[in-house]
Amino acid sequence: MATEFLTAAAGIALGLLAATLVAVCFVRRAAWVAITCVLLAAAALVAASAAARGDSRVPEPVAVAIDGGERVTLDFVLAGLPREGAYGHRLPATLTAIDGVPATAPVLVFADLPEGSPGIGVAMRVTAALEPTSSGDDVVALAFAKGPVELVAGAHPVLEVGNHLRAKFIETARQLPGSGAMLVPGLAVGDESLVDDELDRAMKASSITHLTAVSGSNIAIIVVGVVGLGRLCGWSRPVRIAAAGFVLAGFVLLVTPQGSVIRAAAMAVIVLALEAVSRPVAGVPVLALAVIVLLVADPWLSHDYGFALSAAATGGLLIGTRPVAKWLELWLPPPIALLIAVPMVAQLACQPILLMLDATLPVYGVVANLLAAPAAPIATVVGLGACLIGAIAPPVGLAIAWVAWLPAQWIALIAETVDQLPAASVPWLAGPFGVLSWVALCVAVWLALRRRTPLPVRKALAVGLAFALLFATTQITLTNLRRPVDWRVVACDIGQGDALLVRSGDATVLIDTGEDTELLHACFAEFGIDRIDLLVLSHFDIDHSGAVGELRIPVTAAWLPDTEEARREPVTTLLEGAGIAVYFGARGDSLELGDLQWRVLSPKRSSDGGPSFAEGNDSSLTLLAEPTASCVASCLSLIVLGDLGESAQSPLLGEPVAADIVKVSHHGSRDQNAALYAEISAAVGLISVGEGNGYGHPTEDALGMLATSGTASFRTDTQGHLAVFGDRDNIQIWTSRSELSR
């Protein structure tokens, strides 16, 4: 993996360098050519940095531990604030040693922490299992704790100051009421630990979630304030710059080096340097230089969404605010036009990145930002004062925190109000196509409104946009009207992976989670799922269990294959640590849940009755769910084959496996047993598969096999979510992209 990444990065760097030389040599005297050359050269520099460091980014002890799959003792230093998730805490960390062997690498540790969350810079030790990440990830491995975390040493005294101030401020904020108390620490010092899931959801729906963390504007306020104070006090330029630099360093230490903070701090350092040599300051070049320097220093920072959103918003504001405000001045007074232009431009600039996180558009985002944004600087400055003064005089700090609470509560009320409005967000196309379609829409609207655009082109664009709006509105309306309420099975469209919802009477069963957490929760929201009564993990490939650690709804119990692999799997530890009842199933086991009887077909326990030694795809927990006598609606049977290959499917031949619905094994790969599908004789075959996957799934062989066995195939990559309902005489399939029936 590392070699492939190194080769790809080096190839990209060389290709960009060649393109730059061609542009310089053959095209001249055009501003856009110069800009293109700079962009290509910067991209080549970043790619070259990634290529040079990619091979050594994963130290040998880490690679050996990942390949071996054994438990190891990790020594690490906490590199960020712990975040509490559904299954323990997420600890951003810098690894220092594995089993006593020195090794430095960024990792993400999943572990339960003792009372009193440790601060940044604290040295810790834990026994854990390492799992690899993709080569472009900002961490080289995921570490799942297999025991309690041990505190080895305290943080450096300088870091401990920041830890102490944050901890004291959190204690102060806990004394404040309502949702505003949750936001005060985030607005002032970037600590979001008090924000609960409900408020977080409301902030996202209103597109003001960026206000819960320290942004670049916070740093700008601090630096400009110190420089302005210095001028009022008659300080010399070197003293002003030194004071601003000192305060900047202290502020970054206090709020922790998040992506947006790093970007803003780098820009502030460049501005102070230009101020020191009396050079003029221009926003766009400063932003560009800061981004280039940071990405060359750490190319993997590009995977930090906070950094990307911060850079995009800043660039949009610097480039687009004035033109948009000028356009709005055609109808509005200049001050009002400017107030509206700022959140509008920021929203437009960030939306392509936000669509990669959540394929929805916030309808009231601009209005919410317009109302909430003026309160954020007040809460930041006053809250920071409360933090610093409260460490010395707690009663005074609490009094000042009450002042910061007022704007914070205002922001929270806006978020909660917007979240309750009808159509607070509307669905959009997911993936790269969704991003490109959004950009194309923005360009079309800009051209249609631009006076210099020829009138025939403007008319054509206006007509096209009107038809597109009508089509989208019609599709959304029809989708909502036709979505079945009495579904039995839903295959969620979560990309290349499996996530199957089954309604078992009043209980909800989730079979596998896929890897994409946001797409999975979008499916939950679409079908009204707010709890999982039984989580079934067929096996532990990342496309089947990767989102387990990020589930944001309650899970009562889990059913895993009874294998040696499952018993040492980090996900199992994660579930048990979260207080979820974990059961191991093997052939012959059964469970009655609601109006379905669930029977395990595979794997088979070992001859001595112990766990199976099967691993990987062939260890998949294979289930047959059949209606009980209590079933009154959508009494359909289901067989779920996980990722069983042809040889592992063969032992099921001759068993009672007939079912109305079959979850096709391994995303419709070629490795299938045609005789088994003939015995199942399902009316409907559900194929969970990612659009444009590189595996060729589903294969023509698999689709032909299903057709031969009389099974109609439906696939998530082209038809979206698949919901099965009706009865055996009239099985119906609803899809989120079209409606079909059988």
Strand order of the largest sheet: 15-14-13-12-11-10-23-24-25
Q: Count the strands?
A: 25
Q: Main β-sheet, in a few words? A: 9 strands, mixed
Mean residue pLDDT: 82
Helix content: 40-55%
Strand content: 15-25%
Compute the gyration radius: what is it? 28 Å
Quick description:
This protein is α+β, with helices and mostly antiparallel strands and 742 residues long.
Could you walk me through the main structural features you see in this protein, from its secondary elements to its overall organization?
The protein is α+β, with helices and mostly antiparallel strands. The protein contains 25 helices and 25 strands. The strands form 4 sheets. Strands 15-14-13-12-11-10-23-24-25 form a 9-stranded mixed beta sheet, covered by helices on one side. Helix 2 packs parallel to helix 10 (283-297) and helix 12 packs across helix 13 (365-372). The protein starts with a helix and ends with a strand. The model has no long low-confidence stretch (mean pLDDT 82).
